[in-house]
Design brief:
2 domains; D-Amino Acid Oxidase, Chain A, domain 2; alpha+beta; globular; 9 helices; FAD/NAD(P)-binding domain; 5-stranded antiparallel sheet; 372 residues
Length: 372
């Protein structure tokens, strides 16, 4: 008899869960339904950087998750023939103002290259060499290039994986649902029972679970980014992504597009309206790297809502006392890196509980979801 699975949320986690429930379902034993209204979804607004290896974060479990998440993304891109406009392993450059900090960063990069293949090679660049790698720059600090770094379009990534899953066992319902006090899906006035429910609603998770006697440590973080049109940028090669010290992330494309951002704005609730002061600040940051940019270069503003926790660590797994309800959330700004691996681990938890050590990647879920 087939088992039924509901996925609530079609962002980076939900899409990857759907992909792996399809990929791992060799005996066609699953019926999978995804509920997603798409409103405010962080993944849709995200154009991000995959480069966790030189992060300043000291949480070892987070680093394990991000490191292996970066490797998984590279593998998914290859196995699904993903287009370069979705995922592009173009390399990343991280700059530093002082030679001491630059040398420290470079030593860390060399150490990481011996630990994981996905990072690729590491090179120390002077300011002119950085500008040669990214010709549109008029100003730069020296930096470290890691060739395995990548840029990713979160919305296109999720759409790509959902399309593959729809070819087999995934049905998508573009409606908002909740979980009732019996742990069943509430769709309008209809009650639907599933063998498993996976909740991947990001900053809205607290609302999704509000009918259950649970305290959920999830907060909303607003993220804004801008897309600029840049002329005469055809370098003839894929330019690396730039993570400049003291400035916003800088994601160039060969077609004359430049993305700057995103911001990390706590305590803004679920406001999806662009903020003039923030947009001006993003534009000013870009202008300090590329002379002459102004409002005429601005072609698009994207706003999304991320989820984060009180200790800024993600969480995932079965909810205490509700073993058929699994969650993945609190990803924060690293969601495009960590979300796919969380999705895969949730899918494995349902299909083949094959002894993966989840605790190498997470703190106890009771740190984030507790019974009232």
């Amino acid at each position: 008899m087939k088992k039924s699975v509901a996925i609530i949320g079609g962002g980076i986690v939900g899409a990857t869960v759907a992909y792996y429930l399809n990929k791992l379902d060799d005996n066609h034993q699953l019926n999978v339904t995804m509920y997603d209204d798409g409103e405010g979804q962080a993944t849709k607004a995200a154009a991000g950087i995959i480069s966790p290896w030189l992060s300043k974060r000291r949480n070892k479990k987070w680093y394990n998750l991000a490191r292996d998440g970066a490797t998984l993304l590279s593998n998914i891109a290859i196995e699904t023939n993903m287009d370069n406009d979705i995922y592009n392993q173009c390399g990343t450059i991280i700059t530093r103002a002082s030679h001491e900090k630059l040398n420290e960063l470079y030593k860390k990069a060399l150490k990481r290259t011996s630990e994981t293949k996905t990072i690729g090679e590491a090179y120390k660049l002077n300011a002119n060499e950085v500008k040669n790698k990214i010709p549109l720059l008029t100003s730069s600090l020296p930096g470290v290039l890691v060739t395995g770094g990548a840029r990713i379009d979160g919305g296109k990534f999720a759409k790509h994986l959902k399309h593959l899953a729809q070819l087999n066992n995934l049905n998508i319902v573009n409606k908002n649902v909740s979980i009732n006090d019996e742990g069943k899906i509430q769709l309008d006035k209809e009650i639907i029972e599933y063998d498993y429910i996976i909740v991947a609603t990001g900053a809205w998770m607290k609302k999704t679970l509000s009918n259950l006697p649970l305290d959920v440590d999830v907060r909303a973080q607003k993220g804004q980014l801008i897309e600029l049109s840049i002329t005469n940028t055809n370098s003839g090669f894929d330019m690396p992504v730039l993570m400049p010290e003291g400035e916003k992330d800088f994601i160039p494309f060969n077609d004359g597009k430049l993305i700057v951002g995103a911001t990390h704005e706590n305590d803004k609730g679920f406001d999806l309206q662009p903020t003039n002061e923030v947009i001006d600040d993003l534009l000013a940051s870009a202008n300090r790297l590329v002379d002459g940019l102004n409002q005429e270069n601005l072609i698009k503003i994207k706003v999304g809502t991320r989820a984060y926790t009180s200790d800024f660590a993600p969480f995932f797994g079965s909810i205490p006392q509700y073993p058929n309800i699994l969650v993945g959330g609190g990803l924060g700004s690293s969601g495009l890196t960590t979300g796919p691996l969380i999705g895969k681990l949730l899918a494995h938890s349902i299909i083949n509980k094959n002894g993966i050590d989840l605790d190498q990647y997470r703190k106890p879920i009771e740190n984030y979801i507790t019974l009232k």
